[in-house]
Amino acid sequence: MDSNVIEVSTQPYDDQKPGTSGLRKRVAVFQQANYVENFIQAILEAAQRPRFLVVGGDGRYYSEEAIGKIVNVCAANQVQKLVVPVNGILSTPAASALIRSLKADGGIILTASHNPGGPEGDFGIKYNTSNGGPAPESITNKIYQVSKQLTSYKSLLKRPKIELDREGTQQVAQCQVVVVDPVENYLELMREVFDFDQLRRLFQRDNFQMLADPMNGVVGPYAKRILVDELGAPEGSLINATPLGDFGGKHPDPNLTYASELVDQVKANTAIKFGVAFDGDGDRNMILGEGAFFVTPGDSLAVLAANLDKIKYFQSRPVTGLARSFPTSPAIDRVAAELQVKCYETPTGWKFFGNLMDSGLMCLCGEESFGTGSDHIREKDGLWACLAWLSVMASTGKTVKQLVEEHWHRFGRDYFCRYDFEECEADKCQVMMRELERLLAVESPGVGVAKVFPLVGKLYAQGKYEVQETGNFEYVDPVDKSVSSKQGLFVRFTNGARIIVRLSGTGSSGATVRLYVSDYSQKELFAESREYLKDLLEIAYSISKLPQHTGRDQPTVIT
Ligand code: G16
After folding, report:
1. 258-282 confidence digits (pLDDT tens)
2. What is the Å distance from ligand 1's center to 268 Cα?
3. Most buried of the four, 121, 226, 258, 278, by CB within 10 Å?
4. How far is residue 187 from each of residues 45, 50, 88, 425, 486, measured CA to CA in Å?
């Protein structure tokens, strides 16, 4: 072994199981002795010793310290090249783009996404593979297995000091650490995907103003370079555009609750025709029209799918297929039917889209959790969604509200609502899920006993809803045939309405229950969403016994 490299004895931690998108915990957990080093050692072993990695993240508190530790462990493990953005700040979509364009073996992304930051907040680490996308379950499971058995990790004898504040190359033992501009590569990609001249003309129109809110997350510098410097949006088009380690105390989650500053400003100023918020690491987006007209993520995805011909990137390639995660409203399915392409239904987690894109089966996808993206990269992409909407508006001359309402007239409307019950007691939620699983998804109660689904055929809300099917969603990846089971308990009704209950895989403490309901109407297009879904929400409460189990009868966040 290299005389610069030592083995440091360590105790394994038993809680390093990556969730929906990486390992997310309170900062204090990551600050424990050897916690970061152990996890990085586990990643490198599980990922079969990559040689060239991109490392960066949303700039949240503890990032620089973690990058120092990562450089040390990577250099000691014979990683030969690390590309790190200035100050370690790199949006998740830009990381995906960089991994792909540099042909790196993968990337280590430091983010807890939309979770709050700061010393009392969350931190996170995730591994992306050479396609630029989050590691599939086969790798994340392996990372967890390795982490539980670690007795040592590799370290340089003398821990390195890295200068991250300017571009340049530094040598750390056998490893070259290259500090790069975080925006340039992503900007180049956006130039290829969108017609920047068309977008510039949009910003020159007298009657067009937009407001973007990066919520003090990583998108600020990207929005400034692309929207302001390149496309000519006035500086005042951005709020909260400086990345801060604690997001200025904000919860950087772009929804109606946490992005209320944007909502209030767009509502108050009718000159603003388009509003958009991004999350901490820049992969999520929330779209608002004039008067803060809210576009649900499912509708946003469907409207974009129906207008792909307005986006330069898609003008030279066929629409191969579409996809959405299971809980996402089926609005996009109706567009797929019209385009005569398949719409794949995957479990929650962007990692499930990777195989479909890599094998050319699908090119546009999204999730109810404010994620939208295309196969230009392998992560969801907040700024891409913003530019995609601007392109559709520029090309059609229509407002957000017109585009959405015309879409409803054409395809019918998918009403959708998600209730989040955050930081519930984990034990109680496990009991609730077990009982619900017994009710909805036990296929074989005993040897020789017929399958029983007790709710099938039951009528609710004076016969308005009849249960057609219940179960726990299982996905067989069409490419590698891997099976992901227990991805969400569901009740499907004969009219297509659905109730889904699952536990979030991105929380850092306690358990977050997500309850999703959706229903469809071809005739009633302008009802208030929660009013339209009132009966379904009541049915969901009564079937799941959620209030009794969790002690909560009001959600923390409603989408
Ligand atoms: C991650 C995943 C998404 C997922 C979301 C919510 O997003 O990449 O695919 O939809 O979490 O997951 P859950 O419902 O399990 O909390 P992000 O933006 O947090 O990285």
Report:
1. 999 999 999 999 999 999 999 999 9
2. 31
3. 278
4. 33, 27, 18, 43, 39
